[in-house]
Design a protein that fits this description.
heterodimer, A: 306 residues, MetI-like fold, 70% helix, 1% strand, B: alpha+beta, Rossmann fold, 2 domains, five-stranded antiparallel beta sheet, 20 strands
Chain lengths: 306, 399
């Protein structure tokens, strides 16, 4: 639903009859995709929803559940884990905002200022996505080492008394948000770059010609015109960041008091074998994200832009 | 730029010793120009002559390498575009795609905090007869409509100076004519100073009070359209503004009111006032429509300039007039436009004819004539296209 906002222009009226006439061909073309979605998205989703209502087998082993309609799975797990749910969205929101603030100038520089130098442009974009050549886990572990108590950053900050001697950088909300921001910057940068690269400079000249200062031109012309990139970039960052369980994990940049909804789902599925709770939390995560994204896309008015 | 108030009236524009160099080439060699307030000024020239750069310098979108720009007596050379009392109608229109037509037009008013921007924007849209489309977006309008919106968006601000960068380039002939008239009437109505950049000589001549012909980063000649046409000063102007027949020859007599030039053995008389040079080897010219064709030299009135005999090599009918190409040995091809006042051609293809004209229509140009006596109009796009076609044909033959 949300993706429809930035995948293409709405069909113009004179195109529609032709499209309808060829609907037979369209169905055939859609078939593989539909089959794929049914098999790998719809089936697991239904199974997840069924699991989320299951009840433990009476006198059964740990991890044995039977089909039921136990609403309390939702209410109980929300009552227990609401701090983690809230934390997930707050962290994801801050990380998304930070990634946007870092990526927008970067994408603007590469996409607008570097125009006419395509070699340099491509080189810089390669550098932006270069982290993908190394595993996500390895990079996050590397940051754990860099930010660790005996790492040079922490020790030099302590040496100049910016940090108290007993403070840590890892295992704090800061390091978790830092990790989320760092890991999702390429996802923010790529869509921003692709819209800013197409930004018509002549419109900025027109803005300045019509008495708008560079800052007003940026607010009134550049930002609205790069809205598709901003929306897709923030969605591509916010959605996975809200469900992320690596950065907030105690093995990586987090601590017990920074765990997010992803960590809850992970431990319930894999450690506690409390499948219904894990499934319920997964459904909650998905529902909340759907609502947030729906409101966001509607409010940002990006359907009209494309 | 004061907020909340319009310019009282058009302002004059002065360019002093402007030079503009880009890395690798010089766009403007040397430019001194004064455009009086309230006039309709056209900068005419082929593409790449520096006319758009001149406009961008005035708008503040480029900075001159050297020189000063004064608008209404105020030095604006170092001020930013948004601080100048200038608006531009861009060649690409540059309408904001994310705003409605109304918001596009109100944009400048809102930035300057002028009272009641919506009503004023509607008024400007009524002026270009597009008020009924105020709620649409630019992408929903045709090219001609977008052009009018761009015009309304600039005019609504009542700038002291309105810059038009080939704004009619994308329109078809009929709409172009209509827009030319509309532009002219808007200019008269609101009394702004218009600076219009174009490569279309007809457009420049019909609309502007003053035309400056630009070539290779310099102004070749400036004046009213009539003067530029009747009395071109250089070969470039003579060929760029309409067509000309040009001949080279030495000045034989320069005593009295007229000077005599020897062209292919004939004595061509030119009034001294119409000659840029009066001695040595000079370039003589006359417009094709001033020429008359004669089958015998007897019918030529005495005192007229004449050349011939030559042979008619081409006759092409174009409605109001017929174009004849006359090949005169030693002088090359002479173009003659004859009004179709009688039915049937004045001279038949292959006929032997003399051409004659009133000495008062002759002019002598400032340029040194080329050594071989032939004039190549290097900047004429038609000539370039013809040369390209010829080159292509020879290549095809060789292949």
């Amino acid at each position: 639903m949300a993706l429809a906002a930035f995948t293409g222009a709405p069909p113009t009226q004179d195109q529609e009859p032709a499209v309808r006439r060829k609907s037979g061909i369209a169905l055939v073309l859609l078939l593989p995709g539909v089959l794929y979605l049914v098999l790998f998205f719809l089936t697991p989703l239904i199974s997840l929803i069924i699991t989320s209502f299951q009840a433990p087998v009476v006198d059964g082993d740990i991890g044995q559940y039977q089909t039921a309609f136990q609403w309390s799975n939702y209410t109980d797990s929300l009552a227990e884990y609401w701090p983690q749910v809230l934390r997930s969205f707050v962290y994801a929101l801050i990380a998304t905002a930070a990634a946007l603030l870092i990526s927008y100038p970067l994408a603007y520089f590469i996409g607008v200022k570097m125009r006419g130098r395509p070699v340099l442009q491509n080189l810089l974009m390669t550098l932006v996505i270069a982290p993908f050549f190394i595993s996500f886990l390895l990079r996050t572990l590397a940051w754990k080492a860099i930010l660790s108590d005996d790492g040079w950053i922490a020790s030099s900050l302590k040496a100049v008394s910016i940090l108290p001697p007993d403070a840590h950088i890892t295992g704090t909300p800061f390091s978790v948000i830092f990790g989320l921001t760092y890991n999702f910057i390429p996802f923010m940068c790529l869509p921003l770059y692709s819209t800013l690269e197409r930004l018509d400079i002549r419109l900025l000249e027109a803005g300045q010609d019509l008495y708008a200062s560079p800052w007003t031109t940026f607010r009134k012309v550049t930002v609205p015109l790069s809205m598709p990139g901003i929306v897709s970039g923030t969605l591509l960052t916010f959605i996975p960041a809200a469900g992320d369980y690596i950065n907030a994990s105690q093995d990586f940049l987090g601590a017990a008091d920074t765990s997010m909804i992803g960590n809850v789902i992970e431990s319930n599925f894999l450690v506690l074998q409390n499948y219904p709770t894990a499934a319920a939390m997964s459904v909650v995560l998905m529902a909340v994200i759907l609502v947030i994204v729906g409101v966001y896309v509607r409010r940002s008015g990006t359907e009209e832009l494309l | 730029m004061a907020k909340g108030v319009f310019a009282e009236s058009g302002a004059d524009l002065r360019l002093e010793g402007i030079k503009k160099r880009f890395p690798g080439f010089t766009a403007i060699e040397e430019l001194d120009l004064t455009i009086p307030a309230g006039s309709f000024f056209a900068l005419l020239g082929p593409s790449g002559c520096g006319k758009t750069t001149t406009l961008r310098l005035v708008a503040g979108l480029e900075e001159p390498t050297e020189g000063r720009i004064l608008i209404g007596g105020q030095d604006v050379t170092r001020t930013k575009p948004f601080q100048r009392p200038v608006n531009t109608v861009f060649q690409s229109y540059a309408l904001f795609p994310h705003m409605t037509i109304l918001e596009n037009v109100a944009f400048g008013l809102r930035r300057r905090r002028i009272g009641d921007p919506v009503a004023k924007a509607h008024e400007a849209l009524r002026l270009v007869e597009l008020d009924h489309l105020a709620a649409r977006r630019p992408a929903q309008l045709s090219g001609g409509q977008q052009q009018r919106v761009a015009l309304a968006r600039a005019v609504v601000n009542r700038p002291a100076l309105l810059l038009l960068d080939e704004p009619l380039g994308a329109l078809d002939l009929k709409l172009r004519r209509q827009m030319q008239l509309e532009l002219k009437s808007i200019q008269t109505e609101v009394g702004l100073t218009f600076v219009h950049v174009t490569h279309d000589q007809e457009e420049a001549m019909t609309m502007a009070d003053t035309v400056a012909v630009m070539n290779k980063g310099r102004i070749e000649q400036m004046g009213s359209p009539e003067i530029l046409y009747e009395l071109p000063a250089t070969v470039f102007v003579a060929n760029f503004l309409g067509q000309s027949n040009l001949f080279a020859g030495p000045v034989q007599e320069s005593g009295g009111e007229t000077i005599g030039v020897d062209v292919g053995g004939e004595r061509i008389q030119v009034p001294r006032s119409r000659a840029q040079r009066t001695s040595g080897y000079v370039t003589v010219g006359v417009r094709p429509e001033k020429l008359t064709l004669h089958e015998t030299p007897e019918t030529i009135p005495s005192g007229a300039n004449r050349l011939g005999p030559g042979r008619v090599t081409d006759v092409s009918f174009s409605g109001v007039s017929t174009q004849y190409l006359v090949d005169v040995p030693g002088l090359g091809t002479i173009v003659v436009f004859a009004q179709n006042t009688t039915s049937g051609p004045v001279a038949a293809l292959g006929a032997e004819v003399w051409v004659a004209w009133d000495p008062g229509h002759t002019f002598v140009l400032a340029d040194e004539p080329p050594a071989d006596g032939r004039f190549s109009d290097d900047a004429d796009t038609q000539a370039i296209a013809a040369q390209a076609r010829e080159r292509m044909l020879t290549e095809l033959e060789e292949a």
